[in-house]
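We emphasize that the prediction below concerns an isolated chain of 337 residues; any contacts that depend on oligomerization or on bound cofactors are therefore not represented. The input was used exactly as deposited, without trimming of termini.
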Amino acid sequence: MGMNTTPEAVLDEKAAIEAAEHALADIALIRQEVSKVIFGQERVVENTLLAILSGGHALLVGVPGLAKTKLVTTLGSVLGLDANRIQFTPDLMPSDIVGTEVMDQDETGRRSFRFVKGPVFAQLLMADEINRASPRTQSALLQSMQEYHVTIAGQRYDLPAPFHVLATQNPLEQEGTYPLPEAQLDRFLLQVDVGYPGLDAERQILLETTGLSEATPQSVITAARLSEIQRLIRQMPVSEKVVDAILALVRSARPGQGTTETDKHVAWGPGPRAGQALMLCARARALYEGRLAPSIDDVRALAEPVLQHRMALTFAARAEGMSVRDLIAGLAKKVDG
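Result of the prediction step, given as a token string:
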């Protein structure tokens, strides 16, 4: 015979390709629907969606008024997710996020506690201006992001699935902010920088959003379908070459690994979660761009959103006016392929 592939293996491969093509078509529909409401900002939309498709959380960083909130509500509608929003303020308490126990009294006068769920019980949670809340409140949110459940008075309550947090953060120079600790930043799969829109996009924003009616996004998939696509992404094969590129990139961003530039300028580098994020997001990006397998280009494109919040420059490098982004761009260029 000379054939070493069993009919089942061929069938499986055919089914896998069909499933990937179906996901590819769904993602194209999602992109199209989002673009009816969010103008320009293609990279922001792409990276935010990649975080969700990869099953993770994203941190959106930018000055107020750049439609970050609008992006999140739009994604909730388009992905068929039940969405909540919390506006973080300095006086926000952990119980304002996770929920609280209230005492009930029945007709006989018997008292009992009942748990009232907080806004964290949503499939898509927008945590607005997360760095305005106290560290204690931030950690209540970040703990639930990590563990997918909350514990109140010893009782465990599971969060809905899928569960995604899109947090917005003001640039740190602004007044009254508590920066997120490094370990907590690592819980975000991607950091998405939101810049000012380009001229054409801003013109479109002016024309489309100041009339009597605005376009409203329709849901394109359901939460159950999103979970299916997320599972599919985790099953996509990644070539040896791409895995090597991911390892080379992540390791080159750590001091003490033989990269002169990094040793000179980086105080601490990304941990293993950075590599995991690149593995997941590279697959999601391939589908997002209409391809069935991730490439080295995906790794290069994701270097900044995956690495920038997982490393820090030395004081001397910052004093020289260097930025983490420039350093990452240099490292991404060196990735072979």
